[in-house]
Amino acid sequence: MGMVFCRGCGKEIHETAPTCPHCGALQRVSIKNNESGTIPDGIKGWSWGAFLLNWIWAIGNKTWIGLLALIPYVGVIMAIILGIKGREWAWKNKEWESVEHFNRVQKKWSFWGVLLFVGIFVIGILAAIAIPAYQDYVQRAKQVEFNQNQ
Fold first, then answer.
1. Could you report the per-residue pLDDT of 70-120, keeping only the tens digit for each?
2. Phi first, then psi: what are they for 4, rounded to 5°?
3. Which one of 6, 40, 60, 120 is at 20 to 30 Å from 51 when CA atoms are compared?
């Protein structure tokens, strides 16, 4: 066990101290101590953030195996694996204040992943409608100009 610096006064304290003996400030209790290998309730489950934002999510959650999503063809399989196991891996690989903190952060990842996916989907639909309409407009404008010149 080592020593760390207090978040309140900056004095050196033992890393397992819940509060600073000097100033009484609450210390961030590290939950990375997963020596038992057990995963608390509320951690397991599907992660839309890991599935949709795979390699970005992997960097943000220090889950380096997720970078395999950058490899063509392997990326699709890795995205599915991250969706299934990502939350557990993120729990083990990063320090979290509590299960609630972990779930709050993962909910944000999921929100942004779904938002970006839906946004790109909507833009694609709009482009599929607008591009042919614009091409038709240009073609008709050229036809009108051609008819006026004759």
1. 999 999 999 999 999 999 999 999 888 889 999 999 999 999 999 999 999
2. -135, 175
3. 40
* Cα–Cα dist 69/93, whole Å: 18
Count Cβ atoms below 10 Å from residue 131 Cβ, excluding itself. 10
Token code pair at residue 60 = 């943000």
Residues in the chain: 150
Structure tokens at 80: 């599915």
- Strands of 37-130, DSSP E: none
pTM, full prediction: 0.68
**Whether the Cβ atoms of residue 66 and residue 86 lie closer than 8 Å to each other:** yes
Of 132, 127, 111, residue with least CA distance to 50: 111
Whose structure tokens read 């309409």?
A: 133
H or E element that contains 146: helix 99-149
Dihedrals φ, ψ of 72, to 5°? Answer: -55, 145
pLDDT value at position 28? 66
Phi-psi region of 30 (alpha: psi -120 to 50; beta: other; left: phi over 0): beta
C-beta separation of 67 from 59 below 8 A: yes
